[in-house]
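ENTRY TYPE: paired fold submission
RECORD: A
CONTENT: sequence, then structure tokens
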Amino acid sequence: MDKFEAIRSFIEVANTGSFTEAADKLELSRVKVTRHIKELEDWLNVRLLHRTTRSVSLTSPGHDLMQHCEQIINEVSGLESLARSHNEELTGEIRIATPIGLGQNLLYEVVEAFSVLHPKVVFQLILSDRNAQLVDERIDVALRYTKQPDDSFIARRLMQIESVLCCSEHYLKKHGDITSPQQLVAHNCLIHISQNIWSFIDKQEYITVPVTGCIKANDLGVLVRAALNGIGVAYLPCDLANTYLATGELKQMLPKITLPSASLWAVYLSRSYQRPVVRAFIDFLAQQWQDDIKVFQ
């Protein structure tokens, strides 16, 4: 029995709650993963998992031994990562789930820079503004805007990104200036489908405004284009808006009123069994994105 491989199979089955999903993630057959668990249980002389036709869960001894197994994998992965950094190039595939606008801009720039340094790494970028299912979609790392990630995941804060209310000069000339959040109910607002109530903070007062408009989209890039074309007012993260604020193509509205910002997090299932190439990329992301993104002034 390869004890290390058997431990890896045990951890994946425990984390996913499925022999099939663990086998897919490890790129092994279900039969082999099942054999690994049996051999490990025989070697340790203890039952590690409860098995039913619908679910797989840890036994009490399995829960206790899981922690030790994770430590073993973590130590070995760290040793492999250290050796690889000295002796060979990083290789392998990384599946990243990311919001569309982030994936098309900031993330793409980092992926390109990492690819130059490590040309044998293959990236799969899954762009969507919904939250990906990490286990079901075999995601190595998901990037999410949120104040606080789900406690069931491991999360690493990357940076804070401010938001800005903006529109084109053409829109302003046609519809007039915006001097308060409440006036937005009379304007054509360009709305992300997950955010039809816009929030503001004015002198410590929290203000919410239900907005309407002729364009709703799940892609912020569409809303940016509509704003540039003078269609309406947009509520955008500054990583997308700052380029156009700098050129004057978009104008900031309500500059003295604060828009709530969001943190960008790297979210993943476990530190214990994280391939060196994934760990190296997350470290690279954190290094590249050390500074928060504020509104262009």
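RECORD: B
CONTENT: sequence, then structure tokens
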Amino acid sequence: MQRLPARNSTIIQEFRDANSTPFVQIYTQIYPKRPFSSPHIKNHIQRILDGNGRIWTITQQNNLIGYAAVYPVPGLPNLAEIEGGIIPIKQRQGFASQLLHHIINVLHESTTQQISLTVSSLEAPAAHFLLHHNFFIEHEEHHLQLDNLQSQPLHLAPCTLHLAPHETAVSTFPTLYDQSFAGTRWHQPYSPDEIDITLSPTDEMLFYLYRNNPIGFAWIRFPNTTTAEIEPIGVVKEMQGKGYGRSLLNAVLHKLQQQGIQQVQLGVWADNQIARHLYHKFGFRHQSTTTYLAYNL
């Protein structure tokens, strides 16, 4: 029978020092496949803290052995995402359960109603651990990819794409997004402040104009010089079911084609059958699935 560590042998406390070298060291042990440098890890932790997130560390005999972070989901104030883990040499000894129970108890005193974590496979150790602790499958997201964009037979769509300046994107995008997705399970509203922070200078916010009025949008990011990510993309509800979504996607892909982009990626909820059907018609193919596991507080 496996013995759980004595509670008095460990200390769980809130963490606020993003420049901690021991923290960087355990992070690289917990996520050995992530090619993150020390400055990248420190910046990641600082962004969590600056975004009203909270971080806890767990130590055993004054040695840091794990951490957990909780941070709010933009636009959904009662939901939070979690991340973290225990260093390999200390795993399967009850420390992760102790840390998780501590966080849940703390969050019961907050306005957070649900926490979630993403896993790439339900066979992953993290998935087994969370499901054992009463997490459930909240939804799945498919990651699609279109290769060889330059060879796709696209034609300029009969619509006007407008590359919005930063100020226009910040003020207009949240309303367009709500008009497109309100009432759907994948609706995740944005505030102007969130757009102002997350819209990178290298991103492109494209608005689909109909009679000089925006009726759709596509947020484009460029991970490298030959790849583009479209997330999100949509058309306002009163214009849905009339071919405008297809026209918008065609116009965006045509624009990216003219920019020399070779590969396009996007994500879609697994149960959004209409969007998945459209993307497959344009040649997008399934690459992987991310599962969102959730726990109701």
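NOTES ON RECORD B: Residues 56 and 103 are 8 Å apart (CA to CA). Helices lie at 21-30, 38-50, 95-107, 125-132, 166-181, 192-198, 244-258, 273-281.
STATUS: closed
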